[in-house]
Amino acid sequence: MRKRSHRPRVVLALAVAAALGVAGCDAVGGDSPAPSATARPSPKPTPLWDRSPSSVAAVGDSITRGFDACEVLSDCPEASWATGASPEVDSLAVRLLGRAGAAERSWNYAVTGARMADLPGQIAQAVRRKPQLVTVMVGANDACRATPAAMTPVPEFRADFEDSLRSLRKALPKAQVFVASVPNLKRLWSEGRTSPMGKQIWQLGICPSMLGDADALDSAANLRRSTVQKRVEDYNKVLKEVCAKDERCRYDGGAVYDYRFGTTQLSRWDYFHPSVNGQARLAEIAYRTVTAERP
């Protein structure tokens, strides 16, 4: 009797194996896709905070203009903590961009005497440069008025800051913002009142709500200074809260307010504004905040 050939079974087995291979069946299960030789890992999402921005614009008041850092009653932007070129300061822009990069890609729109109400206008100027990082230091002049009663009300301060950030976001949705706290004005008074020259300069109109009648220690003077100090603390609370609502904004956590400025860090003319050394300390605080892995 002739033996039956097994060829049809072999052919059928091969056909089934081929069909399963096309369907992508594997050891995991018939519904699992077959590995692809061309598959690539998904790209990492762009971080919300870039620790090495390529351009910097600064807005704010006399501190960011370097007022009284180099000459009496004069701006000295080259000594600015934010964008200055002074090697003694080693500004934030220089630390981030290098000296040549800072000269080409950093801009200072701060104005001596500016208050929070002036910030929207400064922001409007800054966004034309399309900076990747905007630094903000403003609020001291809102407290430094002729009298405590003339200080900027906290709701107005908040509204102007919120308006500024909205304008920035509308123009530059991905721009980063560094916000410095308002300095401790009462500490500056305490340090500067030891200088006869400083007190003479104060009489020209520097922060009269805090520095006026500098040697007075009666209850009225103490109440006046405490009222100003409380307003500064309220301003810093606003800066912190408004910044926290913006995922691309970093507040310094009160580092400038907490910094214990000594006479070395204060202008040798008015003993109130930062000296070149003081500007360098502000640059350190800003750089540390901007480059931190976490806010």
TrEMBL record:
The keyword Cell division does not apply. InterPro entries: GDSL (IPR001087), PLB1 (IPR038885), SGNH_hydro_sf (IPR036514). GO terms for molecular function: phospholipase activity. Residues 30-41 have a biased composition (Low complexity). Pfam families: Lipase_GDSL (PF00657). Residues 1-27 form the signal peptide. Keywords: Hydrolase, Signal. Residues 30-54 are annotated as: Disordered. This is SGNH/GDSL hydrolase family protein.
